[in-house]
Design a protein that fits this description.
Helix 1 packs across helix 4. By secondary structure, the chain is an alpha+beta fold. The chain is built from 6 helices and 8 strands, in the order ββααααβββαβαββ.
C-alpha cells in the first residue's frame, strides 16, 4: 500500500521494523482519558508485555498476506499521531466475542488519534486507507465495535460513514455488564 498525504500528514501501512513506534503509540493511546472504554487492554498490561509481543504484532500487521494491516498517520516532524488496524474476518468463522461471521469483512480495531491532532481529518484518511485495504482483500463490508458510552468515538465513526447495525455485544456478565455497539460501513455489491 502506498502512502497518502493529507495536509501535513502522511498515512501508510506500518513496516515490521517499526515495532518500537507501534509500542510507543499504543502506550500513548492507553493513557487517553477514555482508554478504559475504548480499548480491551490496560496501560499496565501493555507496558508489561515483552518486546517480542510488539515485534510479532508489527510483523503480522505489515506482511502480505496476513489478514491484518495497521495504518498510521505521521506528522511532518515524523511523529506518529494516529493509528488504526483492520483485521479480515472470514465468513463462517466465529469472532472474538463468539458471534458468527456471516460474510468476509474487515474489522477495525485500535483506533486512536493523539488529542492535539484531533479535528484535522486524520481519522478520515486512516479510515479511507483501512477500508480501501479491506476492499482489496475482498471484504464485503467493514465493521467496528464501540462502547455504548463512548459518544465521542461514535460521533467520529458516524462522520466517517459508519452506522449502527443493531448488533449489541455484551462485555462481561451480571448487573454491571457493559455493551459495545457494532457500527458498519457497507458498499453496493
Amino acid at each position: 500500500m502506498t502512502a497518502t498525504t493529507s495536509g501535513d500528514y502522511v498515512t501508510r501501512a506500518i513496516r515490521a521494523d517499526e515495532w518500537e513506534a507501534v509500542k510507543r503509540l499504543r502506550l500513548v493511546a492507553l493513557q487517553d482519558p477514555v482508554a478504559g472504554i475504548a480499548f480491551l487492554e490496560t496501560y499496565e498490561d501493555a507496558l508489561a508485555r515483552p518486546d517480542s509481543f510488539y515485534q510479532e504484532r508489527a510483523a503480522r500487521s505489515a506482511e502480505e498476506p496476513s489478514g491484518a494491516r495497521q495504518f498510521i498517520a505521521k506528522a511532518a516532524d515524523g511523529e506518529w499521531v494516529g493509528s488504526l488496524t483492520v483485521l479480515v474476518e472470514e465468513a463462517g468463522a466465529t469472532d472474538w466475542a463468539g458471534l458468527p461471521v456471516e460474510r468476509r469483512q474487515g474489522h477495525v480495531v485500535g483506533v486512536f488519534v493523539r488529542p492535539e491532532h484531533r479535528g484535522r481529518g486524520i481519522l478520515k484518511v486512516l479510515f479511507d486507507a483501512g477500508v480501501a485495504w479491506a476492499r482489496e482483500q475482498g471484504a464485503e463490508r467493514v465493521r467496528l465495535l464501540v462502547h455504548e458510552e463512548n459518544a465521542r468515538a461514535q460521533g467520529a465513526y458516524r462522520k466517517a460513514g459508519f452506522v449502527p447495525s443493531g448488533v449489541i455485544v455484551p462485555l462481561g456478565q451480571g448487573d454491571e455488564a457493559e455493551n459495545e455497539v457494532e457500527f458498519v460501513l457497507e458498499w453496493p455489491s
